[in-house]
Amino acid sequence: MTTVRLPLFPLNSVLFPGLVLPLNIFEERYRAMMRELLKTPEDEPRRFAVVAIRDGHEVARTAPGMPDPTALPELGPAAGFGSDPLKAFHKVGCVADAATIRERADGTFEVLATGTTRVRLRSVDASGPFLTGELEPLEEEPGDEAGALAEGVLRSFRQYQKRLAGARERSLSTGAELPDEPGVVSYLVAAAMMLDIPTKQRLLQAPDTASRLRDELKLLRSETAILRTLPSLPSSDLTRGPTSLN
């Protein structure tokens, strides 16, 4: 089994390959991570791994709070994730390539990254200034009938888009043609749908593209039926996630 070790960035969201991820970095542990990534030559990928949080807090507590108002703030790379960070995270995540890392005058960072490949989290190391993870790359197998399933998902997704547009009377396609490669379709739709984290995580870790597309087809039909009675839900950019405040 081939593994790689990369900086680990836990989020209250799921990153998919191809999804653009803006980050606003202000916690010291993630500032340290960005400073380390900036040491990588510009012609080489500046990679870190994003994992969705199963049990914990994306931002560590920095002031006394409930139930003990005198409790000290949590510090360190694993703050907010308990004594065993591995148990706090979902086990399948996504490698992110930071195309832009811009340091502000106050020492915080503005980062723009893109999801690239799926990985399975094998272990977490909290001994340094930020978390690192031992990661096993996951191949994306097409599965049976992925091409036909992708066509069905795209048809259902266009109906879903129309329902999401609702009272705004606007298209959610952002003026661009939707892709037809099954793997890309499966990730794009998973990222764009309004779903909770456990459902998005289930889609990310699907055993193959066809399985993901089958799941999405069921979800699209179900969600579109619900949206018929809720036509004014907010729209979503198809390739960009919300800016995370880490």
TrEMBL record:
InterPro entries: Lon_prtase_N (IPR003111), Lon_prtase_N_sf (IPR046336), PUA-like_sf (IPR015947)
Residue span, Lon N-terminal domain: 6-224
Signal peptide: none
SUPFAM superfamilies: PUA domain-like
PANTHER family in UniProt: ATP-DEPENDENT PROTEASE LA (LON) DOMAIN PROTEIN (PTHR46732:SF8)
Name used for this protein in its record: LON peptidase substrate-binding domain-containing protein
